[in-house]
Write a structure and sequence with these properties.
It contains nine helices and nine strands. By secondary structure, it is of the alpha+beta class. It has a single domain, classed as Beta-lactamase, CATH 3.40.710.10. The strands form two sheets. A seven-stranded mixed sheet has the order 1-3-2-9-8-7-6, with helices on both faces. A two-stranded antiparallel ribbon has the order 4-5.
């Protein structure tokens, strides 16, 4: 039994790569969130060194929450694979369009969506039968650690979808592109879920990717998404990004 337990611990450490030796806690991140009226967790992973910069490690690794609209990464990739979404037509839909993705999920069908969730090992829970809301009703929950792992695999085209589909999806979430950096992310907020917000993505400078995940709850429901986007950019700037020097 002892040997089996040790093997399980080793597998978990390898899978997530987050150990005391490669984690740096930065109290300055808490100040950014506090000033924005937010509380939650943040993690930044430097791909080259596998160094994590984290605020609120226990929440990042152990607390699972409804993915909200960040779940749309799943139907989007299925939709691209199946030709429901293309980059050269009106079916190239914004990641912020809840109605469009609710319609897409119903088109894909519960069986295929469940199969994809299972294949991706996406989150935990028994998905409710509500095909227009299960990603926000707490029947499906996911940790920030799992979100970060998913976005990293996507970046390197390591998910089981076609490489072309993953490349198209990365173009869909590109938010800022200039001479200094590229900033890509999925963002989701819901006042009904305790003013919760997810931002999951990556920043690229000098062709080097850094992956991040932010999950928060706001003190009030005014401008939740904008508060979080601004907080994210403040944290990235604080960490030396968005200047083209990383």
């Amino acid at each position: 039994m002892k040997q089996k337990f040790s093997s399980i611990v080793w597998i978990v450490m390898v899978a997530f790569g987050c150990t005391p030796n490669n984690v740096k806690s930065d109290p300055a991140i808490a100040k950014v969130l506090d000033s924005a009226g937010l509380q939650g967790s943040f993690a930044l992973l430097e791909n080259g060194t596998e160094l994590f910069t984290i605020h609120n490690l226990s929440s990042y690794k152990d607390s699972a929450f409804a993915p909200l609209n960040s779940f749309f990464i799943v139907p989007a990739l299925v939709g691209i694979d199946k030709g429901y979404i293309t980059h050269d037509s009106s079916t190239w839909v914004s990641m912020d369009s809840t109605l469009a993705y609710s319609t897409l999920i119903k088109k894909i069908g519960r069986t295929e969506i469940m199969k994809t969730i299972d294949s991706l090992h996406y989150g935990k829970g028994i998905v409710s039968a509500q095909l227009d809301s299960f990603w926000s009703d707490n029947s499906l929950n996911i940790t920030a650690d799992e979100q970060l792992g998913l976005i990293k695999k996507l970046y390197f085209n390591e998910l089981y979808f076609q490489k072309r589909s993953q490349e198209i999806f990365k173009k869909m979430i590109l938010r800022e592109d200039n001479a200094n950096y590229k900033l890509s992310y999925i963002a989701a907020a819901d006042a009904a879920q305790n003013n919760a917000c997810w931002i999951v993505g990556f920043v690229e400078e000098n062709k080097h990717p850094f992956f991040f995940v932010l999950h928060t709850n706001a003190k009030n429901n005014s401008g939740i998404l904008n508060k979080n986007v601004q907080a994210l950019k403040s944290i990235l700037t604080q960490q030396g990004f968005l200047k083209g020097v990383r």
